[in-house]
Structures are given as C-alpha cells and as structure tokens.
Task: inverse folding
C-alpha cells in the first residue's frame, strides 16, 4: 500500500493518505510510511519517465513526447498530464503487486528456514 500511495500523483498528500489508510486498516504505520517514501527526489525522474511511457503506450497520441523544454505548450502538457496520471496509476499497481509478491516470497523463505532450525 505504501508503494502504491508513493507512486500515484497525490503530491503533498502522500504521507497523510498513507498513514490514514494504515490507521483505518490497522496496518503497520511505520512500514506503510516507509513504502510511501519511494518518491524521494532521486526516484522522481524514474517514476515520471516510466509513468509517461506506460501512459503513452496505453493512450497513444499524435503529439510525440519531447524533452526539449523550449517546445512545451499548454496543449502538450494537457495531453501528457493525462497520460502521466493514467500511467502512474498503472505503474503504482504493477509496482505494489511486484514488491508485495517479492516480500511474500522472501518472508515465506525465511519462515520455512526458521521452522527447520527450531525442529
């Protein structure tokens, strides 16, 4: 849940939203907060790039993505903002499921290992 909240475009509300959901569901607040901090400054360009690529794949447009800031106009921002929002939600779902499965496998492995050591 923390990874999901950290990637979606809820700028400025990620920590509040994450902690509120963790309290409501009686989940570990510290781990949820830790997961929501995936959007730290070094990761933001990666998240934005991947979200734009996924959004562009799902919602193709005639106007290509450009990283030349001299050629940016309002119409381009409108088109690519919608792609970014859609792409970020899809990226958030995929990443949250992937990280959740990864931690599930890791915890299952160490749980079996500790049970074998006890017996």
Result:
């Amino acid at each position: 849940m923390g990874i999901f909240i950290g990637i979606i475009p809820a700028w400025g509300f990620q920590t509040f939203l994450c902690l509120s959901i963790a309290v409501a569901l009686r989940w570990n607040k510290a781990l949820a907060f830790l997961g929501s901090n995936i959007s730290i400054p070094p990761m933001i360009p990666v998240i934005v790039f991947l979200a734009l690529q996924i959004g562009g794949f799902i919602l193709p447009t005639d106007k290509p993505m450009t990283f030349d800031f001299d050629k940016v106009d309002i119409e381009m921002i409108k088109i690519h903002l919608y792609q970014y929002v859609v792409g970020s939600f899809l990226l958030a779902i995929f990443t949250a499921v992937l990280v959740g499965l990864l931690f599930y496998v890791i915890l299952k492995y160490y749980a079996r290992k500790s049970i074998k050591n006890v017996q």
